[in-house]
Amino acid sequence: MNITIPEFTRSPYSIIVLSSVIIGIAVAALLMKRAKVPSRQIMLTSLLALFCIFNCAIVLAVATTGYLGFAGLGGALGLIIAIISSVLIFREHERVVFASWVITAPLMYSLSKNGCTLAGCCRGFEYHGPFALVYGEDSCFPVQPLDTLLFMLVFIISLIIFTRAKDKLNTGLISLLMSGGVRIFTDSLRESHQDILISQSQVITVIVCGIGIACIVLLKKITKEGTDNGK
Amino acid sequence: MENNEQEHITEVNTAPAPAPANSQTETPEDRKKANTLCVISLICMFAPGFLLTIFSVIMEGALSLDPTGIDPNSFNPLSVMMTIGTSISGLAEIAAWVLMIYVRVKYRKNTFGKVLMFLYIGLLILLIIGFILLVIMCVGIMKSCHGF
User: Fold this and answer.
1) Which residue among A176, B38, B67, B132 is buried most deeply as judged by most CB within 10 Å?
2) Whole-structure pTM over 0.90, yes or no?
3) Is ipTM beyond 0.95?
């Protein structure tokens, strides 16, 4: 059973990406609201996150490929920059704010991969088995739907741990490690990964995860465990 | 002597304490600090992009080179400079936003900070609308995430 993707005269890619980012921001805001973070902090952090995600995603695409685009990994980097800046400015509810944003990143990525499926980017290797995605004459492994599925699973697992864990920052760490692992695995199934041992995007994934883990270690040092800086 | 000391202690205790930066009133010192931060934020937001545009125009016009058409994967100095310039411009814009948020949190009564916030929100909305329109209209130019 193959899935044929039609060629669009007007690409739905940007609408899907924007919607996924906005849904992710709304979920993060809800999680923060549930943790009794002040509305002002939620609003300013969300604005900063929205700008940083778009800015870094476009800048990374332009800097690495030379073409205008939206790089998901750039978005992840922008999100980390935004939340660490916000946490350092507000110095309130650091752990819960950081974790809320980190666990919603897989949700944003998962939803935005639907845009890649329809646009035809991030294709899998040549494949003619069941569930193959057919773009014109090319038949590819359905790596984008697999990305969507796995990242949604990462989000759901992270959300369950987040609602039960005492120290929310550990949830962020678990989510970050799972996301990094899934991203590296699915990248190896892509068309662009054939005949390559380690791809550029796998290296960037490791760098982004490393930055995220460093931020979590830093936050653990500057905040008291379980008290969220006493506020 | 004792009376004098007591008076002095009373004076010290009743003297108005310096207002914290995020209180209801804004002291001239706070205003000056907040305005300085806002000006730095504005410079970070617009100066790198402006300089990059001038650089592109010079390269395109005087040296007959098209910086936008250069493959960044090829290691020629101009493409490296454009990549670095784009990255610096992006980071400076993030710094501008961070400074604006800092002013809004620490000096929340500052008018310049408020104006800056609405200006940046307006620019963000324009950026998003521009992004959507560009992708919808120019399918060939920008239709994907280039594998990232």
Assistant:
1) A176
2) no
3) no
